[in-house]
């Protein structure tokens, strides 16, 4: 199976659980299991080649300009991790099927789990480090979803947020580090980077790149001081803890350190940072784990400690360290996933996982007890269990490691870590399962169904097999180690065996185990001492930091963004005026190059009307109806101006938009107060006035300046004029620009218009279905309603006008390509024709006769426009290429047909639908409040017999 | 003629700006409409003023009105309707929900509005 498919299968499969959950919980689990199995089979199909020494590659360019290719690589290390991820995934899915209760949405859970799985497989198979970063972030996100899966639990939500904050921050640092690394190596492909050890380590950018990458690795793998998120992530369902937070995700950081080991390791910086952090994490994690009462918290800190151990081994920079690290990754994954699952079983059956509330489970849950004991003894490092082998290797490695201070420091710290590790493992068994059977468990515990204990049991068997016959694992671990070091160091000379003779590591192991037993015996006094000691609590520190950040951000944001609209508007206006003033003050305007156009009396009259209406608008804006009339005058004069300056298309558009806008505002005034109260003081008026006059003077100056000068560069209008007829088949250049040259812009614009109309529709629907509805129904109109709501004259006149208006619209539409007109204007004319019916005959009468919903008309318009555009693909042309021809049907004159006309039809429908949907939504509001229902469209109709009606 | 158009643009901009800075929704919407006129005419005028030029291709005509600003302004006019309509419906819904058409929030509701009230020039708003 192709590497792409292996990575893609979990992502594609993530769609299935959500669908299959309707078919039942088993179907849902099967399909998830099947998906994972398929990916695993795909991986196994590649295994022979990898084991044969080949590095399987697959690559397609994605965004080659920035060096981002979908490049995948499968070598020994990738195979090892991918097999761990998918193999343990299978067990976890089985376990989760029985763990999740009926109330939990299993489809959602498995979908997240598969997303996570795909991202994780993506990390370990990536060849391109930018691609790796994408998958890296995906694991943080899917982990966030999984930790917060129980949305009703505040702890879950907080834990998820904390995990995302910490790992997301690390991810951000990592992006920086990877970019630096790619820059040093000259490529973002790992296969190239890994061969450039010398160049990378000698580069001045090595240290920053190393720091940033390690920040990413340490946050992900919960290394001190970023370890605190992991215990809080334990509020996730236990399958998640077992999968993400013990076996896979937290190992992503380790994986990356191993992956980068050939190029990054071996320097002092690497050694001190990685070994130091690992050592501290190992010791602190082990000590804290001992004093945790919550089973999962104990295991979480134990995981932190073991991750520290692996990190430390990678930090030493020797090939033996890598060997031990790889072996411990395998061992830790087996025993820790198993332990998490048994902890989940205890929680599931006893309804508590607090050690003080447990004890005596040995007799009640014998199977669980056996599995837990095997896994815990491995964690403690007892011979015959696999944890012992890798711990011996770790102790052997520490003997050769000297970090700072005396040479015995590292070995002693390692023994302390191992000692506490043994102690909490023993405590887990002793306090959980030994002791008398109690009668106060929250629920009666017993062994779970087979499907729930089988997955940890399989892992426990593995623990024993590797523990007793380590030679079985030996070739595999040596092979993986070879893939990690890639010839950067000698292959270590070592053999996996339980008995290496009496030597120092064995003695250290013995001390650790005996010491662990002693510590357990002294647990009660030690726990009291621990409780009394002033240990900082990481969550409160984290919360304090977050709170400080938030309040700082608020300090800045609320100053600028305090909810006052007029303040934003003022900021904006002042900024614009300031920028314009700067441009004016620093630039040197050249002299006028154009002749002034002559002025005549008509133009002056029009100007006077416009200016007078605008100034009156400011003076009388408190009277809102009057303001509307004045606004209408201004709009009318603007459209007259367009007509005067040779722009008939604009004049027609402006005047029809003016009509619908005024109708819209009138509808709004039906509800809004009719007067604006006097609120601003003189100071405020003066301030606003100064800003306004500055803005006005600026724009006036700019316009005059612009109009009196020629174009500096030749305008592209020449091209449009020259090609409008040849290329677009139309004489009306404005229309040809709209539907042909810049058709894609127009397409975007009608989409925007459609969306605006839908927003209006949605908002009024919300208003009509929410608490506003009651207010509307009980509302008293602030003006007395006319007794004759639908006057006879108006009704008759509008109905008579309707076909005429529609005919005009069709005419304007048809001639649009060659004479002023087109889809925009025709749509507006049609809308006005229909609105007249609403106004004259009432909402109900008009709605009854409205056969097609306006949303549908918008959709049809955009659909037709899009299809016209797509149509040109079929003849091998780019989107929206137009074609035209001339036709003659005998009785008529020759006429033109252009595909642009179909596009214009789309524009027409979209504009019509959008305008009508907006106006209809507004009138619907009015309708609800208007309780006077009319039976007839015409209030007083002489043709009706009033006698017959009242009867 | 150029000065007439320029001064008209200036007057409409000034009036629009002043109205946008008012404290109730309706004048703000009217102000935005005025600004829209001003901006449209300004964009249109960037094609320079042409009186009596043919707007469509004709045989024998030498000069035409600049079609490009016209096409841009045409869609701008239609879009501005959509924008005004959305602004109106938001204003209306806010008014119906809160029985108040102040744009800076309602006095005594929420901490933000309390802050706003102190931000003005001290006069009651």
Automatic annotation (TrEMBL), chain A:
Source species of the chain: Palleronia sediminis
Molecular-function annotations in GO: antiporter activity
Transmembrane segments: 6-23, 30-51, 71-97, 109-125, 162-185, 205-230, 270-291, 298-330, 364-388, 408-434, 454-485, 497-523, 535-556, 568-585, 597-618, 625-645, 651-669, 690-708, 750-772, 792-814, 820-840, 852-875, 895-919
Membrane topology designation: Multi-pass membrane protein
MrpA C-terminal/MbhD domain mapped to chain residues: 610-673
Keywords: Antiport, Cell membrane, Ion transport, Membrane, Transmembrane, Transmembrane helix, Transport
NADH-Ubiquinone oxidoreductase (complex I) chain 5 N-terminal domain ranges (all copies): 63-110
Main location: membrane
Domain Na+/H+ antiporter MnhB subunit-related protein: residue ranges: 794-916
GO cellular component terms, semicolon-separated: plasma membrane
Function recorded in the entry: NDH-1 shuttles electrons from NADH, via FMN and iron-sulfur (Fe-S) centers, to quinones in the respiratory chain. The immediate electron acceptor for the enzyme in this species is believed to be ubiquinone. Couples the redox reaction to proton translocation (for every two electrons transferred, four hydrogen ions are translocated across the cytoplasmic membrane), and thus conserves the redox energy in a proton gradient.
Domain MrpA C-terminal/MbhE, residue spans: 684-763
The protein, known as: Monovalent cation/H+ antiporter subunit A
GO BP annotations, alphabetical order: monoatomic ion transport
Localization per Swiss-Prot or TrEMBL: Cell membrane; Membrane
NCBIfam families xref list: PRK12648.1
Membrane among keywords: yes
UniProtKB/TrEMBL annotation, chain B:
Region annotated Disordered, chain positions: 101-125
Organism domain of life: Bacteria
Transmembrane helix as UniProt keyword: yes
Subcellular location, record wording: Cell membrane
GO cellular component, one term: plasma membrane
Pfam families reported in the protein's UniProt record: Oxidored_q2
Ranges that cross the membrane: 6-21, 28-51, 71-97
InterPro entries membership: CPA3_antiporter_subunitC, NUOK/Mnh_C1-like
Membrane topology of the entry: Multi-pass membrane protein
Keywords from the named record: Cell membrane, Membrane, Transmembrane, Transmembrane helix
Chief location category: membrane
Keyword Cell membrane: yes
Biased composition (Basic and acidic residues): 101-118
UniProt family annotation: Belongs to the CPA3 antiporters (TC 2.A.63) subunit C family.
Protein name: Na+/H+ antiporter subunit C
Organism (species): Palleronia sediminis
């Amino acid at each position: 199976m192709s590497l792409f498919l292996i990575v893609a299968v979990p992502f594609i499969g993530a769609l299935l659980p959500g669908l299959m959950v309707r078919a039942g919980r088993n179907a849902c689990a099967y399909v998830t299991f099947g998906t994972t199995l398929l990916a695993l089979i795909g991986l196994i199909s590649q295994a022979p080649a990898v084991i044969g020494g080949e590095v399987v590659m697959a690559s397609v360019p994605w965004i080659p300009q920035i060096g981002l290719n979908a490049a995948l690589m499968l070598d020994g290390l990738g195979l090892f991790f991918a097999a761990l991820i998918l193999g343990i995934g299978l067990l976890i899915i089985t376990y989760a099927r029985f763990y999740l209760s009926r109330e939990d949405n299993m489809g959602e859970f498995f979908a997240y789990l598969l997303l996570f799985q795909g991202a994780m497989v993506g990390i370990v198979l990536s060849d391109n480090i930018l691609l790796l970063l994408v998958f890296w972030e995906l694991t943080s996100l899917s982990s966030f979803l999984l930790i917060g899966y129980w949305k009703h639990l505040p702890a879950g939500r907080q834990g998820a947020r904390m995990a995302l904050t910490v790992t997301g921050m690390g991810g951000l640092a990592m992006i920086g580090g990877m970019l630096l690394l790619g820059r040093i190596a000259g490529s973002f492909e790992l296969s190239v980077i890994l061969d450039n050890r010398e160049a990378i380590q000698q580069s001045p950018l090595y240290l920053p790149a190393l720091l940033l990458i390690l920040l990413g690795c340490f946050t992900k793998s919960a290394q001190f001081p970023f370890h605190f998120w992991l215990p809080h992530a334990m509020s996730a369902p236990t399958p998640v803890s077992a999968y993400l937070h013990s076996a896979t995700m937290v190992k992503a950081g380790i994986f990356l350190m191993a992956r980068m080991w050939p190029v990054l390791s071996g320097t002092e910086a690497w050694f001190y940072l990685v070994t130091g952090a690992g050592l501290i994490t190992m010791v602190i994690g082990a000590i804290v784990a001992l004093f945790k009462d919550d089973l999962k918290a104990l295991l979480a800190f134990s995981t932190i400690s073991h991750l520290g151990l692996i990190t430390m081994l990678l930090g030493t920079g020797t090939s033996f360290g890598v060997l031990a690290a790889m072996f411990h990754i395998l061992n830790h994954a087996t025993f820790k996933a198993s332990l998490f699952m048994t902890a989940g079983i205890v929680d599931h059956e006893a309804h508590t996982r607090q050690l003080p509330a447990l004890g005596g489970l040995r007799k009640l849950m014998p199977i669980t007890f056996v599995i837990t004991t095997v896994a815990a003894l491995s964690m403690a490092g007892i011979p015959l269990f696999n944890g012992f082998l890798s711990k011996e290797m770790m102790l052997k490695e520490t003997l050769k490691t000297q970090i700072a201070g005396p040479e015995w420091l590292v070995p002693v710290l390692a023994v302390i870590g191992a000692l506490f590790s043994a102690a909490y493992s023993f405590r887990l068994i002793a306090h959980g399962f030994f002791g008398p059977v109690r009668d106060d468990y929250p629920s009666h515990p017993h062994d779970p169904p087979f499907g729930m204990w089988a997955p940890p049991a399989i892992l426990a068997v593995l623990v024993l097999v590797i523990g007793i016959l380590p030679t079985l694992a030996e070739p595999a671990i040596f092979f993986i180690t070879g893939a990690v070091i890639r010839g950067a160091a000698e292959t270590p000379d070592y053999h996996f065996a339980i008995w290496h003779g009496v030597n120092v590591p064995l003695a250290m192991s013995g001390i650790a185990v005996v010491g662990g037993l002693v510590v357990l015996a002294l647990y009660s006094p030690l726990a009291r001492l621990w409780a009394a000691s002033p240990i900082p609590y990481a969550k409160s520190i984290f919360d304090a930091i977050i709170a400080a950040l938030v309040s700082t951000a608020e300090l800045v944001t609320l100053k600028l963004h305090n909810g006052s609209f007029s303040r934003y508007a003022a900021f904006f206006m002042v900024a614009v005026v300031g920028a314009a003033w700067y441009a004016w003050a620093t630039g040197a305007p050249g002299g006028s190059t154009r002749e002034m156009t002559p002025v005549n009396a008509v133009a002056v009259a029009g100007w006077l009307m416009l200016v007078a209406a605008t100034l009156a608008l400011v003076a009388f804006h408190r009277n809102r109806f009057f303001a509307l009339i004045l606004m209408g005058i201004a709009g009318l004069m603007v459209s007259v101006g367009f007509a005067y300056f040779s722009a008939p298309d604009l004049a027609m558009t402006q005047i029809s938009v003016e009509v619908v806008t005024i109708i819209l505002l009138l509808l709004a005034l039906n509800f809004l107060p009719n007067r604006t109260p006097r609120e601003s003081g003189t100071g405020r008026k003066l301030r606003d006035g100064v800003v306004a006059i500055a803005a006005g003077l600026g724009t006036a100056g700019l316009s005059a300046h612009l109009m009196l000068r020629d174009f500096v560069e030749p305008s592209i209008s020449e091209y449009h004029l020259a090609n409008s007829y040849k290329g677009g088949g139309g004489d009306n250049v404005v229309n040809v620009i709209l539907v042909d040259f810049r058709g894609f812009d127009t397409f975007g614009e009608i989409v925007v218009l459609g969306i605006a109309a839908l927003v209006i529709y949605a908002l009024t629907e919300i208003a009509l279905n929410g608490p506003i509805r009651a207010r509307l129904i009980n509302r008293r109109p602030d003006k007395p309603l006319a007794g004759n709501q639908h006057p006879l004259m108006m009704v008759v006149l509008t109905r008579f006008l309707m076909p005429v208006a529609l005919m005009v619209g069709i005419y304007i539409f048809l001639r649009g390509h060659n004479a002023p007109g087109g889809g925009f204007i025709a749509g507006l004319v049609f809308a006005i024709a229909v609105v007249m019916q609403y106004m004259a005959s009432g909402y109900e009468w008009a709605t009854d006769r409205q056969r097609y919903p306006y949303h549908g008309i918008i959709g049809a318009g955009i659909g037709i426009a899009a299809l016209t555009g797509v149509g040109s693909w079929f003849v091998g042309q780019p989107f929206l290429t137009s074609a035209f021809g001339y036709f003659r049907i005998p009785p008529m004159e020759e006429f033109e047909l252009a595909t642009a006309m179909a596009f214009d039809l789309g524009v027409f429908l979209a504009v019509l639908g959008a305008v009508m949907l907006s106006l209809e939504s507004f009138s619907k509001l009015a309708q609800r409040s208007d309780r006077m229902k009319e039976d007839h469209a015409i209030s007083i109709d002489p043709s009706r017999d009033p006698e017959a009606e009242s009867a | 003629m150029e000065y007439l158009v320029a001064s008209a643009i200036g007057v409409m901009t000034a009036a629009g700006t002043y109205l946008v800075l008012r404290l109730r929704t309706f004048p703000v919407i009217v102000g935005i409409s005025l600004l829209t006129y001003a901006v449209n005419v300004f964009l249109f005028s960037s094609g320079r003023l042409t009186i009596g030029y043919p707007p469509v291709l004709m045989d024998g005509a030498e000069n035409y009105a600049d079609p490009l600003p016209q096409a841009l302004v045409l869609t701008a006019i239609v879009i501005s309707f959509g924008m005004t309509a959305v602004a109106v419906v938001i204003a209306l819904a806010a008014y119906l929900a809160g029985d108040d058409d102040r744009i800076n929030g309602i006095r005594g509701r929420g901490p933000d509005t309390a802050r706003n009230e102190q931000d003005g020039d001290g006069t009651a708003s």
